[in-house]
């Protein structure tokens, strides 16, 4: 993990930017792998599926994953980075500290309704479909302002910024324009929403370029944990 942190810090220094936050993407990894990184001081973890996160959190010490008012185990901060169906909003609002995949008004309302006030506001990022891919989740860039306004109007949500998953390229350099467009959108959003401080972009293969273009948080799985185990045939990891 130290090697990764150093790589990220170097990329930021080379670009004259502040070092980004590291989100450790623990999807498909066992709870023991999370505990091992937490012991090294890593506190923010990203999961793609509500069900998988619930099981892992329970294993790490949260007695009853979705009961009200409980904190995440051992000061860990959990981020949902996978697509969220509205019918899972209640569970997500209970299990996560951040939801990075808010891309429609219905989800804003559902998360706000279900967030337990005892937990404090849920941090949210608007997910933007920055490359306008038909198959991708995320709102259009021209929908960001309206969604941001809806989030800002909900006391139980805290608008923190934007999350993007640009089209993957064999040559990561080809992703640079999408990161640059994302940063411009982020800077525009900050003009109306001074609390916005997070631009989540960049994964194992393109983190350095994302950082150079202004990511404030990178989401790293493979480079931290090694390649992911093949998903099991059983539905336990799919959340469906
Ligand atoms: C899996 C995943 C990551 C991490 O990808 P790696 O290539 O393993 O670093 C980051 N963001 C999202 C949304 C993911 O689903």
From TrEMBL:
**Membrane-crossing segments per the record:** none
The UniProt similarity line reads:
Belongs to the pyridoxal phosphate-binding protein YggS/PROSC family.
From what organism does this protein derive? Answer: Novilysobacter erysipheiresistens
Return the InterPro entries for the record.
Ala_racemase_N, PLP-binding_barrel, PyrdxlP_homeostasis
Which Pfam family name is an example for this entry? Ala_racemase_N
NCBIfam families tied to this protein? YggS family pyridoxal phosphate-dependent enzyme
UniProt keyword list = Pyridoxal phosphate
Job of this protein: Pyridoxal 5'-phosphate (PLP)-binding protein, which is involved in PLP homeostasis.
Where the record annotates domain Alanine racemase N-terminal, the positions are: 3-229
Modification N6-(pyridoxal phosphate)lysine occurs at: 27
Q: Which domain of life is it from?
A: Bacteria
Q: Which protein are we looking at?
A: Pyridoxal phosphate homeostasis protein
């Amino acid at each position: 993990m130290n090697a990764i942190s150093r790589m990220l810090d170097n990329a930021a220094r080379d670009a004259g930017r502040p070092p980004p936050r590291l989100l450790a993407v623990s999807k498909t990894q066992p709870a023991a792998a999370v505990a091992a990184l937490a012991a090294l001081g890593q506190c923010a973890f990203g999961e793609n599926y509500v069900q998988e996160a619930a099981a892992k959190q329970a294993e790490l010490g949260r007695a009853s994953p979705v009961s009200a008012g409980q904190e995440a185990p051992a000061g860990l901060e959990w981020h949902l980075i996978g697509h969220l169906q509205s019918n899972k909003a209640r569970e997500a609002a209970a299990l996560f500290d951040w939801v990075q995949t808010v891309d429609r008004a219905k989800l804003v309302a559902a998360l706000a309704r279900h967030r337990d006030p005892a937990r404090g506001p849920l941090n949210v990022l608007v997910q933007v479909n920055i490359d306008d891919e038909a198959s991708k989740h995320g709102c259009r860039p021209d929908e960001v302002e309206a969604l941001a306004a809806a989030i800002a109007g909900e006391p139980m949500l805290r608008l923190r910024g934007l999350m993007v998953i640009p089209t993957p390229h064999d040559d990561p350099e080809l992703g640079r324009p999408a990161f640059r467009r994302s940063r411009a959108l982020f800077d525009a959003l900050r003009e109306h929403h001074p609390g916005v401080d997070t631009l989540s972009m960049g994964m194992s293969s393109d983190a350095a370029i994302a950082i150079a273009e202004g990511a404030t948080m990178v989401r790293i799985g493979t480079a931290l944990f090694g390649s992911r185990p093949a998903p099991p045939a059983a539905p336990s990891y799919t959340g469906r």
